[in-house]
Amino acid sequence: MIDLLLGASLSPSDISQVLLAYPQAFQLSLDRGREVLDFLHDDMHLSESQVRTVLTRYPSILNMNVKGQLRPQVAYLQSLGVGPESLPELVLSRPLVLGPGIETVITFLKRLGVPRSQMRRMLRSCPLDYQVHFKNFSAAAPGGGSSSSSSSSGGMGRY
Question: What is a GO molecular function of this protein (predicted)?
Answer without folding.
Answer: nucleic acid binding
